Amino acid sequence: ALAGAGVSFALGYLALSKANNLFVWHPILMTSGSVFLCTAAIDTVKRRKSMGKARAWMVQLHWFLMDAALIAMGLGLLAIYANKNKPLEKHFTTAHSWVGLTGLVLFVLNLLGGAATTLGPVLLCGKMKLLWKDVLHRTSGAMSYTCMVAAVLLGLYNKVVLMPEGWGGKFEIPVGWASPGKTWSYGNLGGERIVNYFMAATAVVYILAIFPVSHKAPKAKAS
Fold this sequence. Notes:
Elements: H1 2-18, H2 25-47, H3 55-84, H4 95-125, H5 135-157, H6 185-188, H7 192-210
């Protein structure tokens, strides 16, 4: 979580030092939502077993962080949509946007599913169910997180337009699609080396978040 916060803060600082406009808030908010807030939310769930009686509070913190991530990423999506000021069919034409939108849709569906599981029992017994396990919730959450981090990496690395004429036009993979460049990061963050550092740091944050770590509560000593 701290590593994700560091990546998000450093990216925001460097980006705003170059320009403060509507576009630049898209990567800032999206990175903050996915690399920082989502990572922190995952970390709270991984650590809940070591918290003893505070497990329910950790789950509530997980929920709060996910809501905050949704708000940040929603604002980031609005920022880029408003900045382009183009017809709807001209939006979401890049590999970066497709992967990011897939992750965001999965994120919203997973958040709604978690809310239903938590709040559903209120209708039956008047009490929330904060402690529960669901393989589908965990798997879809991991998939959405993977897509969102992948979208961050794609946005940093290059710009691959798959539908240059917009929706209704032809699909094509451009020549040099794997080459770096043609995106905001190289000019705003300080060049290719700095971009590579950000990509490596983001990948490390992802691995630390996804890799299973046991946080078991310490056993009480026998008297």
